Amino acid sequence: MTTNAVEKPSHQGTPIWVESSRLAATDSRTIALHVIPAPDQDSAGTVLTDLSPATSTGATEPPLGGLLKRIMDLVVAVMALVIAAPVMIVVALLIRVTAGGPAVFSHCRVGLGGKPFNCYKFRSMVANSEEVLKAYLEANPEVILEWEETHKIRDDPRVTSLGWMLRKSSLDELPQLFNIIRGDMSCVGPRPIVNDELKRYGDHLGEYLRTRPGLTGLWQVSGRSSMDYANRVALDSQYVRNWSVWVDVVILFRTVFAVIRIDRAC
Prior knowledge:
By secondary structure, the chain is an alpha+beta fold. It has helices at 20-24, 66-98, 129-139, 144-150, 161-169, 176-182, 205-209, 229-241, 245-260, and strands at residues 5-9, 15-19, 104-110, 116-122, 186-188, 214-216. The chain contains 9 helices and 6 strands. Helix 2 runs antiparallel to helix 6 (176-182). The longest helix is centred in the first third of the chain and has 33 residues, at 66-98.
């Protein structure tokens, strides 16, 4: 442990040692700080400090919409799951037959208050998608900027023929109904993002963390395929600031038409 440590007494009188350089590196927002108590500076162990913005803002606020929005989520998700169950079974079988391997995959996303969760989707990519992506970017360096900017690639080589159909129709997202029932997601909300995207939300990060990510949202009914990242963030922030039950109802109805118009559904 270095000598530039700051002693922070605990309630039991046991000092807790925290590196001041770590504290100085943080900003004015609340930071989730985890430390190891020690009887003295010399015996203090490694300081465990989580400076991830995922846990810094909005983690202690009540979820957007509270109990009313949660009840609405459960009712809509259960009804949708009952209606969509036959389609989901057919899609799962088609994936197994045409591509092999599991029909559903999960990817870690950032949820309410920064809590990570496994977001479910029907698999639309080849099994070795990471290797295919790496090779494609190496062979096409002009695409790297597009990937870094949007985390998407036009004419993505990883996506199977069936996968393109699932994405165009948004059927690949149907397994997220289980995420809604589990409480990981909401029917309507911001786009579920990965940890690396948190920094791109800037001052709007607290608004994202106030609510559960959505199966649909303003981003989906506003031409998401042609939208740059800054506008996506702005729509997520706008949704949180102006939320009401009526807003959710309108977005759900608009989603139906966006899915029917498959040119706007991806």
